[in-house]
Amino acid sequence: xADNADRHYQGGEAHDPLVDETEDARxxxxxxxxxxxxxxxxxxxxxxxxxxxxxxxxFDTSAExxxxxxxxxxxxxxxxxxxxxxxxxxxxxxxxxxxxxxxxDES
Length: 107
Hints:
This protein is mainly alpha-helical.
């Protein structure tokens, strides 16, 4: 009979507050897993470094270009790093991680 006292009726159906607590905990684990997803960290760093190196490549002097045998290597390396970082962020956005279920000790 104590179980019935803990249940509330919403919309004519029994509603258990423990179910809400479990769902809230699952959502918090999932948000924490997405926050510390390694793809986000790697993608963000590559985007930032790609922008920095790419901007340096845009403003290379002729001496720096000659040193690289006529190739604007900073510009190309920055573009490659930027594309890689954006792909990592896109992958993380398209396939988000799911938090693993906590293991319960059954003793």
